[in-house]
């Protein structure tokens, strides 16, 4: 979903791009890092609550619920100085052909890392 010559964004496209760019702005200068973690893994590594994480993935990117959850997540990651993979976030927010697959990948990375973090605490 990259604008080209003669290509127009509809209202939802503009809103989705604004979410992506707004997240980058909140996480500046961390958005320059090319070696960022998966979004799910980064949130798990920083102790982001499962309830908030699920809220993020539950909403479609063009809803106010997603916008609020995304703002909280990017603020959280910025506070913890955790860089993320913006190509994955691009797919999460802008990809419309198979959004459930992207959400599933993000969820798998969160829950896999959260489980590893729990095991570390037990040892």
Give a verbal description of the structure.
The protein is mostly helical. It is built from six helices and no strands. Helix 1 (11-26) packs parallel to helix 4 (64-79), helix 1 packs antiparallel against helix 5 (86-94) and helix 5 crosses helix 6 (99-122). It is globular, with a radius of gyration of 15 Å. The N and C termini lie far apart (45 Å). The mean pLDDT is 89.
* Rg, nearest Å: 15 Å
Report the portion of residues in β strands.
under 5%
How many helix segments? 6
Kindly report how far apart the N and C termini lie.
45 Å
Largest sheet: none
Class inferred from helices and paired strands:
mainly alpha
Q: Bin the helical content.
A: 55-70%
| Arithmetic mean of pLDDT | 89
Runs in which pLDDT lies below 50 for 5 or more consecutive residues are: none
What is the overall shape?
globular
Q: How many strand elements?
A: 0
Note the main attributes of this structure.
123 residues; mainly alpha; 6 helices; 0% strand
Brief write-up:
With 123 residues, this protein is mainly α.
Describe how the helices and strands are arranged.
Elements: H1 11-26, H2 39-45, H3 50-58, H4 64-79, H5 86-94, H6 99-122
Helix pairs in contact: 1-4, 1-5, 2-6, 3-4, 5-6
